[in-house]
Every structure is written in structure tokens, then in C-alpha cells.
Amino acid sequence: MANPSAAPVLFDRTLLLARQARAQRQGAATFLLDRVAEDMAERLSAVMRDFTDAADVWTPGEGLRLPDARITSLTRIAPADAPREILQLAPQSFDLVLSALAFQFVNDLPGVLAQISRALRPDGLLLAAMIGGDTLTELRQSFAAAEAECEGGVSPHVAPFADLRDIGGLLQRAGLALPVTDVDRIIVRYASAFALMQDLRRMGAGNVLIERRRTASRRTTLLRMAEIYGERFADSDGRIRATFDVIWLSGWAPHDSQQKPLKPGSAMASLEAAVRRAPKTD
To answer: Contact, 50 vs 30, CB < 8 A?
Structure first.
């Protein structure tokens, strides 16, 4: 079983769960989750096999609703079950594990991926989407510039997000075969930085960093942040841009039927010989 205490604790997951629950009660903003769910259904449709037992790990809100007749049973593991990041999954109990927009707030992602890897049956699939990359880079830069100018210092407002290359390495470290990662960049436009921040609250995605500032930002700092945001990241019509990078990750539990790379030196023909046999062109 993973040991979350061994990983750096960046996120206050109890606060995260409380904010997600509040967002649900007040009317959650689900446009990102809706898009991810639609893309996930499309990606699953390209996998030519049936799944008997699937799990949805920590997807916020009401979880994934996938109209896929090839999934016999879908077990939801709700975010409220995850303050300590321990998955109560029996070994080799699922042939498909899904997760949408949850892993970006995990303190011990290597440990969680290792738990999922153990829960997959041979040739079982993990397919997940998480926020990462340059997400909210505009908001991060605007806050930093405003605080440096108005307060003489900078405090963290936007969480550090995982990089695409790091995620691929974590899949391999967890023992998953055939790892694949890619990024879907989504640009959302808002009337102002305050409208963006309102949407983040309605996603339950406000600042939950352990090292977050515990007092409210000064009004002058917030106004200057919004002004800088507009100066640097507005389109010609005055609306601002906000970047959301969705990192997709997938990997398979090892199985003898899967393709494997050749061992070094096991090729039957050399590149030099292939070049000599290649037809000449004018």
C-alpha cells in the first residue's frame, strides 16, 4: 500500500473536498469536465475490447457517465473517500480504471498510480485526464506581478502543475506498459479576471495549497492583478484568455499478448544492409 506521508504534502485535500462539495451545492461549473467526459468516451470507443469491471477514481461532481455498452459494471470511488489518498481496491479487481480532472490535486501521484496498477488485471487499462502543463499561466503571472508591485513579495495562488514528460515517467514507474500521454490545450475567454476566478470557485478549484496565503488579498492588489491580466492577456475585443492544459494519460497492466520492443542487437538485418538494398533514385 502506498505511503502518502512519504510524499511532499502540497495540497490540503480536506479543504479541496469541502470546496468541491460547496461548488456542487451552489451550482458547479462543469464545462471542462463535460468536455473531458466526451473526449474520454471517444477515446474508449477506439479501444476494441469489452470491459467487465471498471472503476471511476475521484472524478468530481457526480462522476463519469459513459454511454458505453461495452462496460458491464462501473464502480464510482467518490472524491469524499480520498482525503488520505488510499484506494481500497483489491489486487487485479478491475480491467479498466478511469479518472477525470482529479489527479492534479493528488499529493502522492506515484503512489496512487502504483495502487491503480496493482488493482488492474493483466492487460487492464488506465485512462485518465488531469489538469497540468501551462494551465492558468496568465493568472499566475498576473498575481505575481501585482503582488511584487503592491506588496513587495509574492505568495502562491496557482498550484504547480505536472509536466507532460513527468507523467509518462510516472506511468512507467508504476509498472504500466505501453504508456501514452498527450495534451489538449483549451483556451477559455472571460470578461475579466474576476469572472475567471468565479468559475474556478464554481469548479471547486480554488487555492488549496498548504502554503497558501491565509489572509485575503488586498483590494488594491486584486484590482492591479486584474489590470495587469487585461494588459497582457486580452484580445482585441477586451476579453481575456485563460489556458487550461488537459493531460491525457494511459497505460496497460503488463500481459504476454502485448507488443514488446526488441532486445538490443536482436535485429535480423542491419541499417547499412537496408540502405545498400534501397533502390536508387535520379
So the answer is: no
Please tell me the predicted confidence (pLDDT) of residue 249.
Answer: 97
Torsion of CA 106, 159, 17, 31, to 10 degrees: -100
Q: Is-contact 229 175, C-beta < 8 A?
A: no
Helix (H) and strand (E) counts in the chain: 8, 6
Neighbouring C-beta atoms of residue 281, cutoff 10 Å: 4
Residues sharing a CB contact under 8 Å with residue 195, sequence separation 6 or more, in sequence order = none
Nearest Cα residue to 60 out of 160, 116, 129? 129
Q: Low-confidence residues of the chain, pLDDT below 50? A: 1-5, 266-275, 277-278, 282
In the prediction, which pLDDT does 1 show?
46
Question: Residue 3 is placed in which grid cell?
Answer: 505511503
Q: How far is CA 162 from CA 103, 158, 249, in A?
A: 10, 13, 12
Domains along the chain? Answer: 7-255 (3.40.50.150)
Helix runs in the chain, H state only: 13-26, 31-45, 109-119, 137-150, 164-173, 193-202, 219-233, 271-277
